[in-house]
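Might you be able to consider the sequence and fold that I enclose below?
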Amino acid sequence: QMLAGMDAENEIWQIYQSDSNPEIRQMAVQMLASTGGVQRLLEVARTEKDAAIRLRAVQMLSGQRGQEEALAALYSTEQDARIRRQVIYALGGQQAVKQIIAIAKKETDPELKRTAVQILAGIKSPEASEYLMELLK
């Protein structure tokens, strides 16, 4: 079963790497998520030139647990505001309070900062509440 999953992941990865059609590449990225190809999704999110495909990779990473540090690192290197916003949503889906607070503290783009604060407001955690209270002072 596991080997079949790896074979499928490898085949999908080959399609992603060899096909130049952006729609096919986006579908391959979606399929990587279903095979558990987290490392490859991260690679796409970090290295893909097409912003729409990078965005799709980040969307697919939203459902993958345990990727808080990788997503936070991706946020710090990504330039595209839409993708950065999606990273914040992905971190919110993982309840990654520490990483979202770090983003909210450092972010200079008011829209992205607002997104981070809104996500924190929806997470029930002492750290999130404490940070939000600091903002109100």
